[in-house]
Amino acid sequence: MPSGCASATAWPRSVGGWTPAGILHLPNLSHIVPVMVGDAVRCKQTSNLLMERFAIYVQPINYPTVARGTERLRLTPSPLHSDTDIDRLIAALTKIWTKPGLERRAAA
């Protein structure tokens, strides 16, 4: 693995940066990180904003793949995503999170 690249085990630790920002993500044993949105339209809007403003593609997951009310963004990092890439994604999500009307949640 190239120097500076995030491993599958490093990724979940990096995701912890979202908790203080109020962006809810579900714990997961795999490398996939579900970021909870809870609304199909807002999920797609968030995905679109990430692509339009930051050139970051994130897959929106909506009904019927998940139950209504549990819509989410599916983040799927690979070993080729560096810590810088992860930090850039967290910063982008933090900047746009309230644009489609998503609420921040208090850090636990």
Notable characteristics:
about 110 residues; 3-stranded antiparallel sheet; 4 helices; disordered N terminus; globular; Aspartate Aminotransferase, domain 1; alpha+beta
Class based on secondary structure composition and strand pairing: alpha+beta
Question: Unreliable runs, pLDDT <50, ≥5 residues?
Answer: 1-8
Broad shape: globular
SSE succession: HHEHEEH
Overall tally of structural domains: 1
By oligomeric state, this entry counts as: single chain
- CATH structural architecture: Alpha-Beta Complex
Largest sheet: 3 strands, antiparallel
Number of continuous helical runs:
4
CATH class call: Alpha Beta
CATH topology annotation: Aspartate Aminotransferase, domain 1
Head-to-tail CA distance between termini? 33 Å
3D structure, described in words:
- By secondary structure, the chain is of the alpha+beta class.
- It has a single domain (10-96), classed as Aspartate Aminotransferase, domain 1 (Alpha-Beta Complex), CATH 3.90.1150.
- Helix content is 36%, strand content 10%.
- It contains 4 helices and 3 strands.
- It has helices spanning 10-15, 18-21, 40-54, 83-96; strands at 33-36, 59-61, 72-75.
- The chain has a 3-stranded antiparallel sheet, with helices on one face.
- It is globular and about 35 Å long.
Question: What order do the helices and strands come in, and which of them pair?
Answer:
Elements: H1 10-15, H2 18-21, E1 33-36, H3 40-54, E2 59-61, E3 72-75, H4 83-96
Antiparallel strand pairs: 1-3, 2-3
